Amino acid sequence: MQDDQDKHDMAARHWYVLQCKPRECERAVVQLANQGYVAFLPTLRREVIRRGQRTVISEPLFPHYIFVQLSATEDNWAPIRSTRGVAKVLRFGDLPLAVPEAIVRALQTREQAQDAGEATAAALFAPGQSVRISEGPLAGLEAVVAARDGNERVVLLLTLLHQQQRVNLPIAAIKATE
């Protein structure tokens, strides 16, 4: 009975860490998926200015590292070492480095929430909509949404001293008026 339990534990899938070659995490994930492996690359979205324009980019949360789900006994690990983009399997001593399921699940949940947050923010404020600024030195003032500026910011038209001013603010700093 104990032998059956040991075999079941060995056949269970765990998440392992792979180190990737520079700027090839996405390629490694695609190549692993093409080979039938389940791979996960946690990303971080942030706003940057490129050529004078604000854009939102997605970059690896852990540069050079991805997670792959494998069984210690049932999966063939040999093709992983020669997969394009993969440098090596991280090890602790002679054993591959397993990551607790809860950590990867939390990263996946964070990723899904980040994606849902973008969709919600995009649908929340439309050009021409009246809003109230809820944070910062302009808190309490009313404005009109002029445009979206990336996924995290909006351009507002604010009337100050009888003149309209354009103000860029984070989406989190405004609330819809009722």
From TrEMBL:
Pfam assignment, any one: NusG
InterPro entries: NGN-like_dom, NGN_dom_sf, NusG-like, Transcription_antiterm_RfaH, Translation_prot_SH3-like_sf
Record GO cellular component, one term: cytosol
Keywords linked to the UniProt accession: Transcription, Transcription antitermination, Transcription regulation
Keyword check for Disulfide bond: no
One GO term (biological process): transcription antitermination
Gene3D superfamilies with a match to the protein in the record: NusG, N-terminal domain
Domain NusG-like N-terminal: 12-111
NCBIfam families: PRK09014.1 (NF006534), RfaH (TIGR01955)
Protein's name in the database: Transcription antitermination protein nusG
Organism: Paraperlucidibaca baekdonensis
